[in-house]
């Protein structure tokens, strides 16, 4: 029975991973104090967390993507809503056609200079916090289109959180990029626009 399951007496989850600056973190060889052991037992038993961690968990698991399919990569992106890949598992079943109701811009395909301004406009209309995935070689670096019409990387106009390599990346690769982004958010890392600007 689940109710009769005994809780572990000593937690194996170090406080350092919970983001606390305790004496134990400063002196890792000293071992946990009695108070810290008691706190960890209570955290494990009751599921106590911080507000920041709860908000990050909610943000990572309710992220709505915006649609910005530009070329062949977009076909792979579209397939992640199918029953085979099913991103509704991550609370992402709705691809928004309105930037104001989207959190994640997945740029899939080559971005021409003509499309750069509309793309930046869509990004600016998204509410914060917002994230960007550059999907595929073309969105990340211009790919094979090293010419005057194609932007050599979407990070020249918007800050990119995750680059997904490939030409085209399979839907599994995009899923991994999305999961990595979720991990970053849950770990408390800020969105790219807070820590860096666009490439020069
Ligand atoms: S990376 Fe390859 S598949 Fe994707 S848009 Fe460029 S040429 Fe097409």
TrEMBL record:
Q: What class of enzyme is it?
A: translocase
Biological-process GO terms, alphabetical? aerobic respiration; electron transport coupled proton transport
Q: Where exactly are the transmembrane stretches of this chain?
A: none
Please give the name of this protein.
Answer: NADH-quinone oxidoreductase subunit B
Q: Residue ranges of the NADH:ubiquinone oxidoreductase-like 20kDa subunit domain?
A: 72-180
Source organism per entry reads Gaiella occulta
Kindly indicate whether the keyword Transport belongs to this entry.
yes
Q: Which GO terms describe its molecular function?
A: 4 iron, 4 sulfur cluster binding; iron ion binding; NADH dehydrogenase (quinone) (non-electrogenic) activity; NADH dehydrogenase (ubiquinone) activity; quinone binding
Q: What main location does UniProt list?
A: membrane
């Amino acid at each position: 029975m689940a109710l009769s399951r005994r809780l572990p007496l000593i937690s194996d989850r170090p406080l350092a991973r919970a983001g606390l600056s305790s004496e134990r973190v400063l002196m890792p060889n000293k071992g946990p104090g009695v108070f810290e052991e008691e706190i960890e037992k209570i955290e494990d038993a009751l599921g106590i967390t911080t507000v920041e961690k709860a908000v990050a968990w909610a943000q990572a698991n309710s992220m709505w993507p915006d649609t910005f399919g530009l070329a062949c990569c977009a076909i792979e992106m579209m397939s992640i809503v199918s029953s085979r890949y099913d991103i509704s598992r991550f609370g992402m079943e709705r691809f928004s056609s309105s930037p104001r109701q989207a959190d994640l811009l997945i740029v899939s395909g080559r971005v021409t200079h003509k499309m750069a301004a509309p793309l930046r406009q869509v990004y600016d209309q998204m509410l914060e916090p917002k994230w960007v995935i550059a999907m595929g070689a073309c969105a990340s670096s211009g790919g094979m289109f090293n010419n005057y019409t194609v932007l050599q990387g979407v990070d020249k106009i918007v800050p990119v959180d995750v680059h997904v390599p490939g030409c085209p990346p399979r839907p599994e690769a995009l899923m991994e990029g999305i999961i990595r982004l979720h991990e970053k958010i849950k770990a408390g890392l800020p969105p790219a626009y807070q820590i860096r600007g666009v490439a020069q």
